[in-house]
Amino acid sequence: MRKFLSVLAALALLFSVVQLPEAKAASAIKIVIDGQELVTDQAPVIVNGGYTMVPLRGIFEALGARVQWNQKAQTVTGIKGDTTIVLKLGAKTATINDKTVTLDAPARSIHGRTMVPIRFVSESLGDDVAWNKNTQSVLITTKSVKEVGAATSVTVSTVSQFGDGRDLQVSFTPPSDQTNVDSYRVLVVKAENAASFNLAKAQIVGSANYTSLSKYNPTQKTTLSASSRDVDGAVLRKNQAYKVFVLTVGNGTYALSASSVSISLSSSPTVNAATNVKIEDVGDYGDGRDLQVNFTKAANESNITGYRVMIVKSSLASNFDLAAANGMSSSYYTTVSKNSSVSTMSVTLNSSSRDTSGDSIRAGVAYTAFVLSLSSNTGTLAHGLSAGSASVTLGTSPQIPMITSVEDVDNNSDGRDLRVSFNKATDETRIGAYRVFVVRDYDYGSFNLTEANKLSSQYYYDVGRTGNSNYSVTLPSSMRDVKGQFIQNGVAYRIFVMGVSVNSNSYPNTLSGPSQTISLIDTGVTAVSYVSVSDVADSNSGKIFKCSSRKCTMRRKLASIGYSLSGKQVQVYSLCPWRPACRLPITRQ
Q1: SS3 letters for 48-110?
Q2: Cross-referenced Pfam families, in alphabetical order (predicted)?
Q3: For the whole model, what pTM was predicted?
């Protein structure tokens, strides 16, 4: 009997094992990623067959992948770098970049979380996954990802006039280290959307909406096709402004370039554009003489009469296009004649050169150069615009003073109201004195060192060297602006300070950048001084007091009497009744 009961108990135990649920909680199992335990809202479980199932979303997101769930299709998609994993609940297969793989056990949902076998994590993301039986731990070791660099000097130009992608040629400079680079993607973005286009958006652009280039392309230059689309999926068309980005694709990592300049497709053909435009800082004058522009002339000059070099503030370069170049005033570009004996053209600007905004070239501003090829017959071929150069910022000469502030400090309605503060030149050995110029705001863009050197002494104020690091100067009442007008209220001014050379034949004068804008304002009438008030009657009404000051002696009916805890306080007014000259407390006797 006892033996029978033992057999019966064994059978019951066996039955209970057979009836175990398919997924058994394994709360003791830990997930450890690179030595750090990952806590998820659904613990790993062990299923029949001994397979450990882990939560896909928790692990994928911890490893830097994005996870998307499609309720209708019951599919989960994981995306990390250039790897896309698609998995359907209940299926024993999944796709990794369209390649089918088999799972050790079907994916399943437990408490709303998709669970997958451990080995699938390793296969899908390429990281090392191991099982430590002793510690009951899933150990995941991520493979170090070598970052890739962004492409630079992205340029775009029109090479034909089809009115579609065939018109656009894109070139760029790849990163110096291409070891981990797989390919490049050329992304065309509508110009109005370019400011908000970023790396995250670039990564999710569909393959139909970019052009892929191998890293082994020797020139990294491509002409798009008639079917090329922008990143929104729209076919490229004329009369739409575009900017081009290049996405560097690595092994699990990306880098996005800066945008090209804006370009619009046109139905009018153009002459060949200049290429390889470069801009350099070659001097220390603080004006256009510091800028030298070099470029390779157009491949075909038979229909070109010459070139125009245009200097654009780099902050505006992305919106500078052929239409803007064609409409530019002759004061805002430098003309370069054709020269059949050389392939590379070079021009150094002059002290009066201006940028395309009409401002004089000056130190501390970033500039980009463009070259316009001039057509000999615009009825047949339009002018052609080059891509922009890399940006350059003119350096500051050690002989240039630096304005720190301009202030309205008085109410004289003339130069005495204006105080100018500036730091001395870093190197004063060549500086004999400083010279202050007041320029009306609407004229400051054309004021430069050449103009400053022309002015006679009645149009500036000289400040002697003191050896101090900082100078603070209040201008005289006779101060005039550079056009000869006396300084006055209500006019917007900018201030310049010149470093006057000890030997102008050997060392040029230098000119600071402009100050901030300042307008003088009269803050009100001036109060009388040395006011005394005496109580001269006992009417207890405050009607009669005697007022005297350095400026006046008079009897006046006071407007009011104020009271305070210390006694009565008399208000004495100047001729403008809204401005008290002073308040003197008196105590009645």
Answers
A1: CCCEEEEEHHHHHHHCCCEEEEECCCCEEEEEECCEEEEEECCCCEEEECCEEEECCCCCEEE
A2: Cu_amine_oxidN1
A3: 0.39
